[in-house]
Amino acid sequence: MRKELRKITISGSKEINKLERFVEEICDSYNINNEYFGNILLATTESANILLAINNSKEKGKVCIGFERTPKGLVFHIVLVNNEINTNSTEDLLDKEIRKHKLSKEIFIIKALTDEITISIDGKSIRLVFYVSSINYEKSLQRINKLREYFNKEVSVKQNKK
After folding, report:
1. Fewer Cβ close by (within 10 Å): the C or N end of the chain?
2. What φ, ψ does residue 115 adopt, rounded to 5°?
3. Cα–Cα distances in Å, from 24 out to 91, 151, 154?
4. Which run of H or of E encompasses 5?
């Protein structure tokens, strides 16, 4: 098996189309089916957006995406290049909680789509592994059902009557 390494750098969320093209080229070269391609594409783009969002640098941040083919499968390393962390202490507590909830939802989606995920402690890199040696229909169905269950979950909202 030949070892293949590829890298791409995107500057902010405006260049996410470069990442999409990068993932599409890789999946085409390995003959990845459309269902699994969708999983890889969504997981990598969400990971890049999360790294930019966590560090409050969605428009001016740079993210480097590395690809490696290993015996385990397809491995994507998403790393924040510039470590500018905007420590805006005037951010409202409610805004922080909303952002945390949104990020946890996105991380859940990524975890459901990947076979392995590793997030660095400092929140500056995410490693995604997709097993392609044994892609099967049951695994895809299991992931689809997890996502459907998550998005169809009913949430009750209580209102205080005065």
Report:
1. C
2. -90, -35
3. 38, 26, 34
4. strand 5-11
Examine residue 156 and state whether it is found in any structural domain, yes or no.
no
- 160 domain-assigned: no
User: pLDDT tens track of the chain, all 162 residues?
Assistant: 556 788 998 887 788 899 999 999 999 988 888 888 999 999 999 999 888 877 665 556 789 999 999 888 899 999 988 655 554 445 566 666 566 666 777 888 899 889 899 988 777 889 999 987 655 566 777 788 888 888 887 666 666 665
Domain count, the chain: 1
Q: What is the Cα–Cα distance from 63 to 51, expressed in whole angstroms?
A: 8
**What predicted TM-score, i.e. pTM, was given to this entire model?**
0.70
